[in-house]
Design goal:
mainly alpha; 2 domains; two-stranded antiparallel ribbon; about 10% strand
Length: about 70
C-alpha cells in the first residue's frame, strides 16, 4: 500500500501538535492554590520571608518589623 508523503507529513504534524498541546494543557492544569503554596514554601525554606508555625501547623507570615 502506497501512502503519499505529503499526506504522511500532515498526519505526523497534526499528531505531534496534538501531543504537544495535551502536554501543555496537562502542565497548565496545576491549581492556583498549589502554585501559591509552592511559592510560599520556597520563600520560607530559603529564608526570603520571616515566618513562624502556629499551633495548627500552618505558616504564619510575619511583618518585617515584628520580632
Amino acid at each position: 500500500m502506497y501512502i503519499d508523503p505529503v499526506l504522511l507529513n500532515w498526519i505526523l504534524i497534526i499528531g505531534c501538535s496534538f501531543c504537544a498541546g495535551m502536554a501543555g494543557w496537562s502542565y497548565g492544569q496545576k491549581k492556583t492554590e498549589d502554585n501559591i503554596e509552592d511559592v510560599l514554601l520556597y520563600l520560607t525554606q530559603n529564608g526570603f520571608i520571616r515566618h513562624k508555625t502556629n499551633s495548627n501547623g500552618e505558616l504564619e507570615i510575619m511583618k518585617l518589623n515584628e520580632k
